[in-house]
Write a structure and sequence with these properties.
CATH class: Mainly Beta
Strand content: over 45%
Distance between the termini: 20 Å
Largest sheet: 8 strands, antiparallel, barrel
Number of helices: 1
Number of strands: 11
CATH topology: Lipocalin
Radius of gyration: 17 Å
Length: 171
């Protein structure tokens, strides 16, 4: 990423990281918000400054504060957690661009369906032993087989917001 970020292996600090989503439903009248409580990941910053890694979400850990809705989101209509327990983002490349902007390119896998995804993140903090990335991006749920849409209630894109804090592995 840059000489300011130490090369080597990094581990996601799950306690200091969040991944949440929001989606308009009920014909754009209601915004459903939720957060994944099961978040993991790791990465490597290489000598040339590039970075690779993986972020993993426990699909069953999505909490929208509505038990019935959460059970439906875990069902085959949506995440199908019995067959696809994890959502992953495999980072193929992360490059620091101008200022604190990081271009992240990778493969997002939901319900066993993988699609390329490029995200612009912000390097929100860094020191010798920790770095934090903030990102917000949209996902078209239909591209991942999440097509359930009773009476046209669910349309548009889902917004994902992530704050990911990595600490030096072994630190």
């Amino acid at each position: 990423m840059t000489v300011a970020v130490e090369t080597g292996l990094w581990q996601l600090d799950a306690a200091a990281s969040t991944v949440s989503l929001r989606h308009k439903t009920m014909w754009n009248l209601v915004t459903v918000k939720g957060a994944f409580t099961g978040v993991g990941g790791q990465g490597e910053v290489k000598a040339d400054g590039s970075a690779t890694g993986t972020i993993t979400l426990d699909a069953a850990s999505l909490d929208t504060k509505n038990k019935k809705r959460d059970e439906h989101l875990r069902s085959a209509d949506f995440f199908d957690v019995d067959n696809h327990p994890e959502i992953t983002f495999a980072v193929r490349s992360a490059q620091l661009r101008s200022g604190d902007t990081v271009e992240v390119t990778g493969q997002l896998t939901v319900r066993g369906i993988s699609r390329p995804q490029t995200i612009t993140a912000r390097l929100a903090g860094k020191d010798a032993d920790a770095l934090t990335l903030d990102a917000e991006f949209t996902v078209d749920r239909a591209e991942f087989g999440l097509g359930w849409n009773q009476m046209g209630m669910i349309r548009g894109l889902t917004t994902v917001t992530a704050t990911l804090r990595f600490v030096r592995a072994g630190a």
